[in-house]
């Protein structure tokens, strides 16, 4: 990996991703409101919310909570920098998983029963989607011949043509990673889900603002993973990837507004079955071709 390229991409991601993620969250709220027959908030409402949180006093049970959240945000930005610099996809996956672990530890550090339940659910979500994410990275390697994301630019066709089953499996767990219903068990961006907000129950002020910014960055990274399936050596592929990202994100919003939350058992079983069938079969076929 080119360290200089990763550093530059990480700095750029730290600046651009929160802006794009904020606008994406605003679009999400507006579309969700229209689907529910409401006018909805203004486009920049997520920004107003975070700005208000940053201006509040930092009230926390202990100082370690804020440190863990800061680490989670830093690792999320680093994962984005690795990916968008064309670096190692598997390393990006590992770093974003490390960010999720810091988020979980932050909730556990508060010793709040509600936050601990949310942290437990967050752990289950990681256990549910991680196998399919690893299958995605392995499938990418087998299709592109390298773990480096920049390898897609040397392809004659998008990797989705070889790992379309892996892509379908990734779409399934993308709903979990974007924290959309029916798999938003630990935390939801929408206030209609529950009064006590699970894993972030004890987080407030600047700490909660960092959580929101982290999720904005996560969404941009995960949608970047989505677009990766549609890019190859032709510059036109960027436009195709962008259209695919828009359509898939709209599909995620539609799912979020039309499906009720499931139990964690259903999430875990379904995600593992999808990973085994979609990821396992596709990789097995590539291995023996």
Automatic annotation (TrEMBL):
Transmembrane segments: 6-27, 66-84, 90-110, 131-153, 159-178, 238-255, 267-288
Alphabetical UniProt keywords: Membrane, Transmembrane, Transmembrane helix
Compartments reported by the entry: Membrane
Principal cellular location given in the protein's record: membrane
The keyword Membrane appears for this protein: yes
Membrane topology recorded in Swiss-Prot or TrEMBL: Multi-pass membrane protein
InterPro entries, A to Z: ComplexI_Subunit1, NADH_UbQ_OxRdtase_su1/FPO
Keyword Transmembrane helix: yes
PANTHER family linked to this entry: FORMATE HYDROGENLYASE SUBUNIT 4, FORMATE HYDROGENLYASE SUBUNIT 4-RELATED
Name of this protein: Ech hydrogenase subunit EchB
Protein's organism: Raoultibacter timonensis
């Amino acid at each position: 990996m080119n360290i200089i390229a990763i550093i530059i991409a990480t700095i750029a991601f730290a600046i651009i991703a929160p802006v794009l993620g904020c606008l994406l969250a605003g679009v999400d709220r507006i579309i969700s409101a229209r689907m529910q027959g409401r006018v909805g908030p203004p486009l920049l409402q997520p920004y107003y919310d975070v700005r208000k949180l940053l201006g509040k006093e930092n009230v926390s049970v202990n100082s370690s909570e804020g440190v863990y959240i800061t680490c989670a945000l830093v690792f999320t930005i680093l994962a984005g920098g690795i990916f968008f610099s064309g670096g190692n996809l598997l390393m990006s996956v590992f770093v974003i998983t490390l960010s999720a672990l810091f988020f979980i530890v932050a909730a556990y550090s508060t010793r709040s029963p509600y936050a601990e339940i949310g942290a437990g659910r967050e752990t289950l979500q990681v256990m549910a989607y991680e196998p399919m994410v690893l299958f995605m990275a392995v499938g990418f390697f087998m299709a592109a011949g390298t773990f480096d994301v920049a390898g897609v630019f040397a392809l004659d066709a998008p990797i989705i043509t070889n790992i379309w089953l892996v892509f379908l499996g990734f779409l399934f767990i993308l709903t979990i990673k974007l924290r959309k219903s029916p798999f938003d068990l630990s935390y939801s961006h929408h206030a209609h889900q529950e009064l006590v907000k699970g894993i972030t129950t004890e987080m407030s002020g600047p700490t909660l603002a960092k959580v929101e910014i982290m999720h904005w960055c996560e969404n941009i990274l995960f949608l970047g993973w989505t677009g990766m399936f549609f890019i190859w050596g032709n510059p036109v592929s960027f436009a195709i990837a962008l259209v695919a990202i828009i359509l898939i994100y709209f599909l995620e919003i539609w799912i979020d507004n039309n499906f009720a939350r499931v139990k964690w058992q259903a999430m875990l079983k379904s995600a593992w079955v999808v990973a085994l069938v979609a990821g396992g079969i596709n990789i097995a076929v590539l291995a023996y071709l």
